[in-house]
Amino acid sequence: MAVRIRMKRMGRKHRPFYRVCVIDGQKAREGRAIEEVGTYDPMVHDKSQRVKLNLERIEYWISVGAQPSHNVATMIKKVKTGRFGEATAPPPMQEPKPIPVAEESPASDASTEEQAENTENAEATAAE
């Protein structure tokens, strides 16, 4: 039996929450876990408070042959070293670009007058 330490997704739509579980590698993601050894809540703003792990149990399971998934291995490493990064504020809003104003030339006025005459002539012929 290949035992893995991986995350089990909980929570609702657009509000994820994960449990870090020791589970048989062939079971489904939400399958029955052997043991739950921590949690991960990506919605918590403070990055250092997102992960809660029972490192004693994780070390035990690794010593008896359990393999952590890639994401769980990264979380374990970050918890041990205390490197979570910092939550940064989004960049400030920028003002919208001004809309360029098109200058009207005398030629464009003449073309609009010609279009108006053409529509009048078309209406006159349609009325006849």
Question: How would you describe what is shown here?
Answer:
This protein has a domain at 3-81: S16 Ribosomal Protein, Chain: A (2-Layer Sandwich). The chain contains three helices and five strands. It has helices at residues 55-63, 70-81, 106-127; strands at residues 3-12, 15-24, 35-40, 51-53, 67-68. Strands 4-3-2-1-5 form a five-stranded mixed β-sheet. A hairpin with a 2-residue loop joins strand 1 and strand 2. The longest helix is centred in the C-terminal third of the chain and has 22 residues, at 106-127. The chain is elongated, with a radius of gyration of 33 Å. The model has no long low-confidence stretch (mean pLDDT 84).
Topology, pairings included?
Blueprint: E1 3-12, E2 15-24, E3 35-40, E4 51-53, H1 55-63, E5 67-68, H2 70-81, H3 106-127
Parallel strand pairs: 1-5
Antiparallel strand pairs: 1-2, 2-3, 3-4
Quick tags:
3 helices, 34% helix, 5 strands, 128 residues, five-stranded mixed sheet
Summarize the structure.
The protein has about 130 residues and is an alpha+beta fold. It has helices at about 55-65, 70-80, 105-125, and strands at about 5-10, 15-25, 35-40, 50-55, 65-70. Strands 4-3-2-1-5 form a five-stranded mixed beta sheet.
Rg from alpha-carbon coordinates: 33 Å
- CATH architecture classification name of the domain at 3-81: 2-Layer Sandwich
Class of the domain at 3-81 in CATH? Alpha Beta
- Total number of helical segments? 3
Distance between the termini: 92 Å
Query: Beta-sheet strand percentage?
Result: 15-25%
Fraction of helical residues: 25-40%
Low-confidence runs (pLDDT<50, min 5 residues)? none
